[in-house]
């Protein structure tokens, strides 16, 4: 409106956004602090759902009982071998969750946030070695960016409610 100073209005909106986002932990790497400050400014994200945290370490469940393969073609055995999931801990040390605003996930919001994250990580000094960019649109409401030591999840509200509990 004509009676509101535009500069003052912009500053108050930015302060409101920053106040609703959860702060980063004190031991957060500088790359993730910079990424968090970039994501706070994104108009596509739900600011209250932006979260930077240490990875959650899950406990290993019981192994299935071993059964030897049978027959001429050696089928039916249950020994799966070793994998990365047998190592206790997590694949990443840090996790970033960014939820896009409801109703924007099918309108390119996820792709826009992925571009912002990749641009921010490639501009870091030294630049992080990121995997090649996928040119396909995210049809499932979930995008993941592997930063080596950390992972960034860009999610829709439905995916977050379905797969992640707070």
From TrEMBL:
Pfam families, A to Z: RsfS (PF02410)
InterPro entries membership: NT_sf (IPR043519)
Superkingdom: Eukaryota
Name this protein carries in UniProt: Uncharacterized protein
Organism: Lentinula raphanica
């Amino acid at each position: 409106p004509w009676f509101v100073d535009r500069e003052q209005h912009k500053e108050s909106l930015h302060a409101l956004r920053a106040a609703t986002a959860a702060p980063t932990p004190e031991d957060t790497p500088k790359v993730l602090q910079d990424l968090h400050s970039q994501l706070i400014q994104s108009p596509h994200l739900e600011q209250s759902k932006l979260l930077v945290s240490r990875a959650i370490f899950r406990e290993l469940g019981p192994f299935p009982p071993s059964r030897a393969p049978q027959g001429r073609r050696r089928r039916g055995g249950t020994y799966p071998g070793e994998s990365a999931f047998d190592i206790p801990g997590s694949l990443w040390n840090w996790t970033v969750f960014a939820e896009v605003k409801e109703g924007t996930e099918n309108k390119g919001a996820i792709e826009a946030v992925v571009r912002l994250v990749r641009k921010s990580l490639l501009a870091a000094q030294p630049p992080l070695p990121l995997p090649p960019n996928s040119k396909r649109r995210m049809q499932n409401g979930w995008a993941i960016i592997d930063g080596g030591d950390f992972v960034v999840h860009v999610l829709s509200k439905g995916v977050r409610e379905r797969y992640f509990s707070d």
